Amino acid sequence: MSFPLLSREPGPVLTYLVLAAAAFLEAFGDSCFQSALYRSTGPARFLAAGFGVLALAAYGFTVNLPRWDFGRLLGIYVVFFFLCAQLLAWLRFDQRPSLPVCLGGVLIVAGGCVISFWRV
Question: Looking at the 3D structure of the chain, how many domains does it have?
Answer without folding.
Answer: 1
